[in-house]
Design goal:
The protein is an alpha+beta fold. Helices cover 22% and strands 28% of the residues. The longest helix is centred in the middle third of the chain and has 10 residues, at 67-76. Residues 1-140 form the DUF6094 domain.
């Protein structure tokens, strides 16, 4: 087990078949003095740890399906779907789960509009309860994880 900030951890590339991201919903000051969103930073910096063909589950408020985040998603994932949390949870937290299968980045720009439009019509997003049980399959071959440690390990 590794302890410490994800941003100071060391993880092998393509180490996982599944990446479940539920980042803090924060705006933070970055090194250059500007503001950046943690949802975006977690997504960008965790991508190398997900194997190609692996599944991303990205939990964010629906209104964070911004053009920049949608661009990252369509450029790096196939078979993208967005699912609204069940009624009581959605009313409380406004969260959606974005699922997709990691692909190599293509050279062609893909349209992000279909994802972006969901942020303006959250009630049109289907509920997680409607997702078929076997909608996504994980790769069935093991991955050797050579490096997985936090910034401080068991100190």
């Amino acid at each position: 087990m590794g302890f410490g900030s994800f941003f100071h951890s060391s993880i092998s590339r393509e180490a996982f078949h599944l990446l479940f991201l539920n980042p803090p919903y924060l705006s933070v000051i970055n090194e250059s003095g500007g503001r950046s969103r943690h949802e975006k930073r977690f997504l960008i910096e965790s991508l190398p740890a997900l194997a190609y063909g692996g599944l991303l589950i990205y939990v964010i408020p629906y209104y964070r399906l911004t053009p920049d985040i949608c661009r990252i998603l369509v450029d790096n994932f196939d078979d993208l779907t967005v699912w609204r949390f069940t009624e009581s949870e959605f009313r409380k937290f406004k969260q959606v789960a974005v699922l997709g299968v990691r692909k190599p980045r293509g050279t062609e720009l893909q349209d992000t509009l279909c994802l972006e439009e969901l942020a303006s019509a959250p009630m049109s997003i289907r509920s997680l309860a409607e997702m078929p049980e076997e909608r996504y399959a994980l790769p069935d071959h093991p991955i050797e994880v050579n490096t997985f440690k936090g910034g401080r390990f068991n100190q």
